[in-house]
Amino acid sequence: MVESSQGLRSQYDDEISLVDLATTFLKRRRVFYAVFLLVTLAGVAYALLTPAKYEYVTLVKLAEKSGGKYIEEPATVIAELDSLWVPDLQATYRAQHDRNLPFRITASNPENTGLVRIVSEANPAGEELIEKTHRQLIERLITDQEQALTRLRKSLERQIESLDTTIDMLEGGQETGDAIASAVEKQLSLETDLESLAPAEALVVSRSNGENTGPSRSLIVVLAAMLGLMGGVFLAFFAEFIGLVREKASEQ
Fold this sequence. Notes:
Blueprint: H1 2-14, H2 18-27, H3 29-49, E1 54-61, H4 74-97, E2 106-108, E3 115-122, H5 127-171, H6 177-195, E4 201-212, H7 217-251
Antiparallel strand pairs: 1-3, 1-4, 2-3
Helix pairs in contact: 3-7, 4-5, 5-6
Transmembrane segments: 31-49, 219-245
Coiled coil: 146-173
Domain Polysaccharide chain length determinant N-terminal: 14-94
């Protein structure tokens, strides 16, 4: 019975009670305060010194043809932007400045529209460079669209001229009324298609919505405080552990 009581007491002696933990924490509270304040102040300084980031958006409406269709599909234009035009701009900037563009350029197509949406994120200091870069992309995109539009316009004009010749030839023949009517109908359809052609245009160029897209400053401060709290508690107990090890080492 005595041996059992001694073994139980030995077991309890090896355990760490909440009172021991609280005593250790109070003993090393200065370590906790120092770490907590240092990390929190570092978070506040980072939140205040980090410049805000804004999203800059450019919208380009693609060239249209009849029936609400587009000269080139938006997906095709975006593929050219991503795989050809943007890499060319990045390579040119790298060659001129010996560094990469300080922001990314992404392109997308809002659903069920003929718009190409070009987006970049940067702090206000990069606004001028973003506008310049977006304008270069707009110029290239609109030039490409104008070339495609010119090709289609010439094709339609040739078809209309051909039908004019065909109608003139049919008018001199007999029993050609149905053929003439069909040719005139086709010619009118082509003329409608020609008149419905609309060029590409830039609707918005590098416009900021005014909302900070970077991490919230209040969130940074809260996370820094939480990190300081956890780090302070850990280092307080770690300091006590180091102190105990030194005491044991000095006793030996």
